[in-house]
Amino acid sequence: MTDMELLDILGGVRGKYILEAQQMREGRKKAPRFRYVRQLAAVIALILILAIFLNTAPGAAAVEYVKEKVASLIETLFPPKKMSMDIEGLPYEGDYAADGVEPQATAETPQPGFAIYYDVDNYTMVKDGDVTYIRPYQKPMTREEVLEAYGDYLSQLPEEERERQIDALMNPQPDTSLPTCEIEIVHLDTSYEDAASQERAELETQWEIKEHTESNRITFSMYSGSEWNSPLEVRDYISDEQSGCFRIIRRFFMEAAEGHGVRFAAMVDTFAVIQPPKNGE
Length: 281
Description:
Number of helices: 9
Helix content: 25-40%
Number of strands: 11
Strand order of the largest sheet: 4-5-6-10-9-8-7
Distance between the termini: 19 Å
Oligomer: single chain
Order of helices and strands: HHHHHEEEEEHHEHEEEEHE
Radius of gyration: 23 Å
Mean pLDDT: 80
CATH superfamily of the largest domain: Mog1/PsbP, alpha/beta/alpha sandwich
Largest sheet: 7 strands, antiparallel
C-alpha cells in the first residue's frame, strides 16, 4: 500500500465504523496490539492535516507512524469479539476476528472493501486472487492431546489401528467424500439487481430457488434434492453503495444445515462494506 493510498483510506473511514468499534470496546480490556479508537481517530485527523506535506520530513514521518501503529485498518475498526448461537440445538460461544479486503482509494475507479467476522477456532480465511474464501478448519492436536481426549476409545484398538487413528487425529484432513462447505466472497462490477437477475436465469436450470429482497440486497436460498448429502447454497448480492456489488455464496449440504449453515449465517450477518473516500473528503 502506498503512502497516499493509506492516507486516502484513513480519510474515507465512515463515522459509523468508528462508533461501532468504540461501542464494542466499552467495558473490555484493551488488547495490547490495538489502540483505543478514540486515540486512532485523533491520529487520523492529525495525519490528514499533514497529508499536504507528504514531501516534507514531518509528513513522511507521520505516514510511517500510521503504518507502524495501524497495521490493519480492518483489525482496528473491527476488533475481536465473542458471538453466541445455537449449533445443532446446543448453545455455542466462539471467538471471532474480522478480516476482509481494504478499500482501494487511488485506483482509477475507487474500489470498496469489506470486513467480515469469522470463527477463528473452526474456520480459516484464504484469498485466491480477487476471491475470498472462509473454510472449515480442523486444528491439529498433539499426541498428548489425542490420548487425553480419546484414550479410552484408542486403548481398545489393535496397536497398528491405534497408531493410524492417532496420526489421523493429529493431522486432520477434510472429508473429500462430502459436498463442499465454504463461504465465497467476490466483488462484481455490476449492480446487485443486475447480477442477481443474470445469475438466476442460469441457476434455475439446476436449483429450486427461493428469493428474498430487502434494501440494497437480494438473497437466493437454493436446494437440489432432499437426501442427507444434497447440496444447499445461499447467495447474497449486496450493493457496494456505488455501481457494483458483493456476491457472497454459502455452500453446504442438507445434514450440515444446523452446523455449518448456522455458523455461515452468523458470519455473513457481520458483513460490512467499507467505502473508499469520495472526492473532497
